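Subject: for your reference before the review

Hello V.,

The reviewers asked for a structural picture of the protein, and I figured it would be easier to keep everything in one thread rather than splitting it across files. Below is the amino acid sequence we used in the manuscript, unchanged from the supplementary table.
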Amino acid sequence: MLITVSGMVGSGKTTAVRGIASFAKARGLVTHVHRFQSMPCITLRPRRRADQPKSGTAAGRSKEASPTTRWSGYTRKRLGVAAVAVFVARILAFQVYRRTVWKAAEWNVLNRYFYDSLSHYQPRSSLERMYYRAVLALIPRPDLAILVTASSATIAARRPAYAKAYIELVGESYRHLASQVPDLIELSTETDAAGEGLTTILRTHVR
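And here is what came back from the structure prediction:
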């Protein structure tokens, strides 16, 4: 069982992942939670040492940009041949990793997925739109794909360190993504009912 949780920063992905893990644990299911961008088949970056502060912690933030300008000047990337080649290579590596490392009987929950990487690209030409559709077609379909959403105003309130333009542009990309991938099930975290909504999604779509 492969479950993916996508969504922009501050949308509530990590909370949703924890909710899925709790749901599975209550049913006696073995569940592995993975950070997609840190998986060996996706990145070649060395693992963080245990004594090295994480980005986002008080120690890790000391070297980051000013909290009022984080991602200031952000623009979405062009989807050219090189970017498509990287996507294809990572998709193939992920497929091999999934079939050789993971056991089919386990629940594997991914915090972020290929959809999140694709959301930072803006196809501007007809050729780039063709590339975009091709990448979407190649992305392995999870057993359950959840897109966690919240309004730009809510995201800005939750993440005041992020530039407003960044929040709006990435939010627009995710809305476009949702219109292109019918398998994505949206989970709004605008209200306190998000937990109940997640439980409903799991009970409805997981057998």
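For the response letter, the relevant points are probably these. Strands lie at 2-6, 31-35, 107-111, 144-149, 184-188. The chain has one domain: 2-42+64-205.

Happy to draft the paragraph if you're swamped.

O.
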